[in-house]
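Bench log. Compound arrived from synthesis this morning; before running ITC I wanted a structural hypothesis for how zinc ion sits in the protein. Inputs:
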Amino acid sequence: MDNKIELKREREKRTVSLMISIYCRKKHHSKGVLCDECKALNDYAILRSDRCPFMESKTFCSNCRVHCYKPEMREKIREVMRFSGPRMIFYHPVMAVRHVIESKKEKKRLENT
Ligand SMILES: [Zn+2]
């Protein structure tokens, strides 16, 4: 097992959980604990990351995610990302900046192929 991939996987899981918790806190006014709906989404997202066969080549939040989520969850995670993505900078600047850089890199890579 490649350590770098596992690290990336862990990082992705942390980022997605953070996004969901921001979303839940602001939108559903939960306090510290995710509501049932968001907990289900979080569990699902983590499971997807665990199973993702493209971890090596993709970056977090790439189009890949959109393909492997089932439609219902895809809609939810999109909403969460739209909502929490811009807010991440206040909570976890380092994570947010890294996320932007990696997304840009990915875009460039896709354009070049
Ligand atoms: Zn919630």
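What the model suggests: Residues 24, 28, 30, 34-35, 37-38 surround zinc ion (CB under 6 Å). The chain has a mean pLDDT of 82.
ITC booked for Thursday regardless.
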